[in-house]
Write a structure and sequence with these properties.
heterotrimer, A mainly alpha (131), B alpha/beta (180), C alpha+beta (628), A: 131 residues, mainly alpha, Helicase, Ruva Protein, domain 3, 5 helices, 66% helix, 0% strand, C: 628 residues, alpha+beta, six-stranded antiparallel β-sheet, 10 strands, 61% helix
Chain lengths: 131, 180, 628
Amino acid sequence: MFMKSKILQTIKILIIFILISFNLKNIAIALTFPEEQTINITKNLRCLICQGQTIHESNSDFAESMKKYIKGELENGKTDEEIFSSLVEKYGQWIVYDPGISRNTLLLWALPLLLFLVGGAIIGKRILKKI
Amino acid sequence: MQFLEKTRKSIFSLIILVLLISSFFIFKFALQKEKIYSPNITDNQIFTDFEVIDLIEEKKINFDKVLFGKNFYLINIWSSWCEPCKDESEYLLELKNDTSIMMIGINYKDKKINALNFLKLYGDPFDQIFIDKQGTVSINFGAYGVPETLLINEDNKVLKKYIGPLNDGDVYEIKNITNN
Amino acid sequence: MIISQLGYYSLIFGLLTSILIFFNSSIQIKKNNSVISNKTTGLIGFQFFFVIISFISLIYSFIISDFSNETVYNNSHTTKPLFYKITGTWGNHEGSLLLWLLVLTGVLLGFIFKSKNEPNNYRQLTILFHQIIVIGFFVFILKTSNPFNEIFPVATEGLGLNPILQDPALGIHPPILYLGYVGTSIIFSAALASMICSHVNKSWAKEIKFWILFSWFFLTGGILLGSIWAYYELGWGGFWFWDPVENVSLMPWLSLTALLHCVVTLEKRELFKNWTIVLCIITFALSMAGTFLVRSGILNSVHTFANDPSRGIYILTFLLVLVLLSFVVFVIYENKNFVQKSEIFAWSKETSILINNWFILYFLSVVLIGTIYPIFLDVILDEQISVGPPFYNKLILPFLIPFVLFMSIGPSMKWIKTNIKIGVKSFFIIMVTLILSFVTIYYIGSKNIFLLLLFIGFFYLLLKSLDQLRQKTKNFAQIFSHTGFSLLLISILLNSFSSNEIIRNIQVGESFSLKNEKILFQKILVEKEKNYESIIGFFEILDEKNKIINLHPEIRIYNEPEMATSEASIKTSLFKDRFITINLIKDQNFFNVRYQHKPFMIWVWISTLIIMLGGLFAIFRKNKEVNI
């Protein structure tokens, strides 16, 4: 049973490698349209006057203005990072949904992963002890 | 071996106990904390390099050029459809008498006729008024909606930010700053 | 007036009964009297009866719009339809707590009847622990959230119910969800009791599994209803937001799911005793923490009713007391249940269940940390951050691939030891998996390797689960749940990666297009209803086959309280939902129109129903051998 899954995984990994080698060029020329780019940015912004909605989802005045503002900034040639950092400066880190990795959020990211490793260690010890 | 096991167990229990009790106190503090969110943006420079359109003459001008010649600038975001804006107009008129302040109005998502009628009815406290048809100008100031008021100094530093209509206390506070 | 009084005094009598039961049970335990007398059963019946009376009184006060009652005044209005008057009973803080109490006392009564074959000292102790929770909630309600407060002078009209809560799905969402939430309380009481009585064994596992399945079934249903509501009512076509309030219902669900798998091992092999007890405690603590987080107003959300800190502090303190109590019980009695460590072979069902628990608890920790970290950061460093979908996606999605692979092979593992066989069949399944995944990836036009990997994992799980239908001893509970789960993952993935949308500000008569479809804004109609005025937009959609679809999104302007809501119009088909909403734009003649394609939406609901069906099978197959 387990052998089966091992073989299975090997096959999968092989196929993925083949795929990657074929697809490299296409991935490199990934095009993003401004409209899509606006959506990607607004999906990551909190509508500050709403309750738990992103700017993208909200129809509030604030969200509508923000969408136009971001579209304008993109047309002015600003990059995503520039837009995010200028908004964070104005509205605080609270506006961005992606907490990112910083001094403040290091634990946020590390803690679950650490727990995963600890859990794995405990289970591994329990099973492998008797082999 | 047994002793080791026991010590390990009690250390583990102690850690969990400490975690539980400290979480309790953190939640307790969180409950008593002010829930209204306002970012700490005072002392930030505001961004001024963008174009605005004058309400009356409908001429384009860079906002950087507007901020010139006074010690303080009061930026008030308002609209004719905004009810609290009506209440706050008397306070704005009061602040107009302070010669060290330039009063700048940002007319938020409004129609020109309605805006002019509003000023006729409630008085015009502004030295200059600019149009913010789409609400994007207000975002440059880090605003949420109407009414909102910013007090900035000659270095474009935000001294005060008021979300919602101004009141007696706010006017007093602003006057205190400008008179010193 | 009198009805309110009746409700109030019923609550007081209920509290008195609880205290009586509590002392009665303690005396019986001290006397080592192992028989549960009719008196005890009768008292528990009475307790439930008093809460029901109180609950019915509140419903009645809502129906007759008795505005001398503060809760009714704050949350109801005479022009509301009868159905929403009734559902308004639990659509507020006080009423929802009364509902909580109703379920809390109800499950204890159910437990008494269901556990007749269990040792009596264990049952007696369960009653004792449960009464601690019951008394805690009685006091909480009477002290901080009395639903029968009177106001004088009596108003002629109430303040009304938040319009977005006036919805059929949301009307039944709280009762269903609460059956799940509060069902975990009996698991908690029974776990502590069984620990003290050294009764953590096969027979206990069999007994408690019913309550685990019960809670799990209703919690799943409650979450489903909440998501459906969010999908059509919040107006932008999403159904899961990683909003703290949703996370709070997901956390007990995750730990219940882990517990469900774990308790089967206890039942079959008498393994993982302590771990099962820990999970029981965690599950209830998470349900309570959920109540705390939602009700205290510590999170800003649509669900927050109250912002009174004293309520939050009460629940928080109570929660701490319960957790500390269970902690002490656990530390003292832990060794009593330790027999000897049985051997676990690497390739066995035991291992696969351990791995299942390992991943599920990891997911749980992601959700838990993501939800409370901002609160902690705010208190400790005074910095506000948002933890949104990007965080959860990044930490959960990559781990889903190994998780579903283990989930695929787990069910075919045998207890104790598994012999490894590879046949033609497994090769066939892998080939079909790969073909399906590539076709899907091609269909949605993606070149993302990670997405492909996800699809491969999900399809493999689907096929492996379906493959079990060919086995001689079919376990329908597990087949349904696992099939449903894989379908759910596939539909969510398809839905989020191939949704399309367009937003336009247009006037009546104008049209726009999305992906070979033409959308025409024909006209608007204004209608007056009993408690709102509605602006209905008429849209005609010409799809790629030139078929006409009509959609009628609405803007409702409610009068009490005054508030505008946007009602989506949705046309569901097997492969995609067409979803349209309109909004007014200030001071302009335009409407903001948002039109979306939401592929495989209906499959998200159907697959969740299939998962629940699996739970039902497990509940009603209790006499036969059940594997998970």
